[in-house]
Design a protein that fits this description.
This protein is 43% helix and 13% strand. The protein has 500 residues and is of the alpha/beta class. Helix 5 packs antiparallel against helix 9 (257-278) and helix 15 (370-381) packs across helix 17.
């Protein structure tokens, strides 16, 4: 069988091979070194794709893909390259178990490829439905909506305000806080089609951040010093003699919500016209999307049904999507309890994540698949590199090297859950199906976790054949705290390719 060759141009990969996984040689690293030795021949460093193509950046101005700014997604360019490499023809079925804003779904639809997807975030379905309906919108109805919305006037006596949770308290200027709720009431009571209401909701979601005192910044929301929250906090800090929070502006101007949404609507209208005038005859791929966790979606799918998988799971980087996207979640109707539950239901990627093993065991028992659960968990527990990593992190915790002891539980949960996803994907894929997974290597407490190689070792345990591990030329740095204490170690960002 011919080996996949995504890119022809090769770069010397010696500087991308990890020589030491444990800072100062404190912990055992033999199992990780063994993985490095085993998979080094599959590593191909390339400059034909970069951080822009494996992130949302290249989609910022693309028709349809720019309708929702999902920073954690990858670009349409990357999906197209992978589909070409995998030789997926129209009519085949691809899966993305972490669908996000629907980039894979949309690219597949444009190429006549069917997609099965799921995502636990409530706004994912809104984005996918809005984009996949691009050829079905009534343009006259959309123009009428834009005109009516743009001329809306909120009565001075209107006093309702958009709901908030602790994370989003005082996120908007007073006018925007009232107008968002006014518009929500207006669109619900309108007679516009459900498809158009969903599109309008997406335009609102894509406008919230720039109309607020917040900005998405790594693990959390960054707050503007003009917000009531920061002003109040500084008053209390001054009383206690504490250092004031720094003066910081997320943006020069907090945009007027009505103006921002009207701009989004007009942008969407222009995109729809452009897509319709350039749509290929193959714009016929079906999209089967389910809101929910891949951990509970995949076990229900039939054996041997998928021709391939392209996905990027949440990274093991402590990013809390329920905080980063708190404005959007609250607008979608989530309250404090909903957000807390969603945080726990996500793939374990925050220090607050708790083990899902007992929940998964009960679920597999309920669907009469207890033997499969035991098989998957047994493979996880027998993975030498994984056990070594957990032992090393436990040792680092005891030495006080972890800045949060929840990191150990997060890492254990993250890879255990991913292993269940990989095992189910193997069962669901047809023979010869190809799998592409985008991910980052990470480092905690001076211990490097080779996510690309560890994931590949799990995949191989379940039956996949490792084919290639593509590595971006631009490596990832470490946090300033880790560099100060343990020194700098460059980390790979990779696309792993496997085949059944």
């Amino acid at each position: 069988m011919r080996q996949l060759t995504l890119f022809e141009h090769k770069i010397d990969n010696r500087e991308y091979i990890t020589q030491n996984f444990s800072a100062g040689g404190l912990c055992l690293e033999e199992a990780r070194l063994a993985l490095e030795k085993k998979y080094t021949s599959l590593l191909e460093v390339t400059e034909k794709f970069n951080r822009r193509s494996v992130s949302y950046q290249l989609s910022k101005k693309n028709p349809l893909h720019s309708w929702f700014k999902y920073k954690e997604g990858f670009s349409a360019d990357l999906v197209n390259i992978l589909l070409d490499e995998m030789k997926i023809p129209a009519g085949d079925t691809i899966m993305d178990p972490f669908t996000g804003s629907g980039t894979t779904a949309l690219v597949c639809q444009m190429r006549g490829i069917n997609l099965i997807g799921c995502d636990i975030m409530p706004f994912a379905g809104v984005a996918i439905n809005a984009k996949s309906n691009v050829l079905r919108y009534d343009l006259a109805e959309l123009k009428t909506l834009i005109e009516e919305f743009s001329s809306l006037e909120m009565p001075e006596t209107y006093s309702k305000r958009t709901p908030y949770v602790t994370i989003t308290y005082s996120a908007y200027p007073e006018f925007n806080e009232r107008f968002i709720q006014f518009v929500t009431d207006w669109i619900k009571a309108s007679n516009y089609s459900d498809e158009l209401k969903n599109l309008f909701t997406l335009c609102v979601l894509n406008s919230l951040e720039r109309c607020s005192y917040t900005a998405k910044d790594g693990q959390y929301l960054r707050w503007d010093s003009r917000s009531a929250k920061v002003i109040k906090a500084n008053i209390e800090r001054e009383k206690l003699g504490r250092k004031l929070l720094p003066a910081h502006q997320c943006r020069d101007i907090i945009e007027n919500f009505q103006v921002a949404v009207a701009e989004e609507l007009n942008h969407v209208l222009a995109d729809i016209k452009f897509v319709r005038s350039n749509a290929s005859e193959n714009f016929s791929g079906g999209v089967d999307f389910t809101e929910g966790s891949a951990l509970f979606k995949l076990p229900k799918l039939k054996d041997n049904t998928l021709d391939g998988v392209i996905t990027s799971p949440p990274y093991c980087n402590r990013y809390d999507y329920t905080r980063i996207y708190a404005l959007e979640l609250v607008y979608m109707g989530c309250n404090e309890v909903d957000i807390k539950n969603l945080r726990q239901a996500l793939l374990s990627c925050t220090v607050e994540s708790k083990s899902k093993i007992s929940v998964l065991m009960k679920y597999y028992d309920r669907i009469n698949a207890s033997d499969r659960f035991a098989y998957i968990l047994g493979k996880v527990n027998s993975n030498a590199a994984f056990r070594e990593i957990l032992t090393a992190l436990e040792q680092r915790k005891n030495c006080g090297d972890l800045n949060n002891n929840g990191v150990l539980r997060m890492v254990e949960g993250y890879f255990t859950e991913l292993a269940f996803v990989y095992a189910e994907l193997y069962r669901i894929c047809k023979r010869g199906a190809k799998i592409a997974v985008v991910n980052d290597n990470v480092r905690y407490g001076g211990e490097i976790i080779p996510v690309d190689y560890l994931s590949t070792s799990f995949a191989e345990q379940f039956g996949f054949k490792p084919v290639k591990i593509y590595c971006l030329r631009q490596q990832k740095g470490n946090s300033s705290q880790q560099m100060k204490k343990f020194g700098r170690e460059a980390l790979r960002k990779s696309i792993t390719l496997w085949q059944k």
